[in-house]
């Protein structure tokens, strides 16, 4: 079972953190507070997060600097960042946010429904990626147990069938999510992330098909070789 996703909320004002928690509580995920850029970076050392909501205007290390540190780390560089700001200095300020690696840049006061909808997309993509990693881990175990030849035996066949069924469920969910993103004219970053997920699923499906009994290179059936 995939655990709840963690969402990192970074803001130096407690009332803003309370407001974000109230807006995002309906998603039923784990909300983690950080009151500074330094505190956010510490949280990212130990936990995995689906998305980061990052305030721009903070004393000390501001949002831009915090994002730069996040993007430099191998572990955290791919976590989506949504910048939140109470000020608007025009296109240049917004461009700086995207240049720092943000997937979105939202000015306060923001529409709670819109923010919740944006965050939910990245949470769902994170969940799909977690499921994909689970399938890949099971597949690696099967490869290690089956050697280089075709997989055989009732136990192996049963595991392959279970893997195939689990993968099919993830493929179906990913396809539905991609259609939803297309219909809603979603952010380009979310659409690109969904497309990347589908490519990974396609590769995993090909690898799984190649393990089927009698499957030769490329997954086509050939007479078994002794």
Automatic annotation (TrEMBL):
Name positions with the PTM 4-aspartylphosphate.
55
| Classification via PROSITE patterns | RESPONSE_REGULATORY
Domain (Response regulatory): give its ranges.
6-123
Keywords, comma-separated and alphabetical: Coiled coil, Kinase, Phosphoprotein, Transferase
Which GO BP terms, alphabetically? phosphorelay signal transduction system
Pfam families in the record, alphabetically? Response_reg (PF00072)
Molecular function terms, GO-annotated? kinase activity
The coiled-coil regions, if any, are: 160-187
Domain of life assignment: Bacteria
Kindly give the PANTHER family that the UniProt entry links to this protein.
Answer: RESPONSE REGULATORY DOMAIN-CONTAINING PROTEIN, STRESS RESPONSE REGULATOR PROTEIN 1
> What is the protein's name according to its record?
Histidine kinase
The protein's organism comes out as: Streptomyces fodineus
What's the source species' lineage?
Bacteria, Bacillati, Actinomycetota, Actinomycetes, Kitasatosporales
């Amino acid at each position: 079972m995939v655990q709840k996703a963690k969402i990192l909320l970074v803001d130096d004002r407690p009332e803003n953190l309370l407001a974000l928690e109230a807006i995002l509580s309906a998603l039923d995920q784990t909300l983690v507070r950080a009151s500074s850029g330094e505190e956010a970076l510490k949280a990212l050392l130990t936990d995995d997060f689906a998305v980061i909501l990052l305030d721009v205007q903070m004393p000390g290390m501001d949002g831009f600097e915090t994002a730069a540190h996040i993007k430099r780390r191998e572990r955290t560089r791919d976590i989506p960042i949504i910048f939140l700001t109470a000020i608007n200095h025009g296109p240049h300020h917004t461009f700086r946010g995207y240049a720092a690696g943000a997937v979105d840049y939202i000015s306060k006061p923001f529409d709670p429904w819109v923010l919740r909808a944006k965050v939910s997309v990245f949470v769902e993509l994170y969940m799909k990626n977690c499921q994909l990693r689970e399938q890949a881990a099971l597949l690696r175990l099967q490869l290690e147990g089956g050697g280089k030849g075709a997989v055989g035996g009732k136990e192996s066949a049963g595991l392959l069938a279970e893997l195939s069924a689990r993968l099919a469920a993830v493929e179906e969910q990913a396809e539905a999510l991609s259609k939803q993103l297309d219909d809603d004219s979603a952010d380009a970053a979310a659409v690109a992330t969904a497309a990347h997920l589908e490519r990974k699923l396609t590769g995993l499906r090909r690898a799984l098909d190649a393990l089927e009994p009698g499957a030769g290179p490329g997954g086509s059936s050939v007479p078994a070789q002794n």
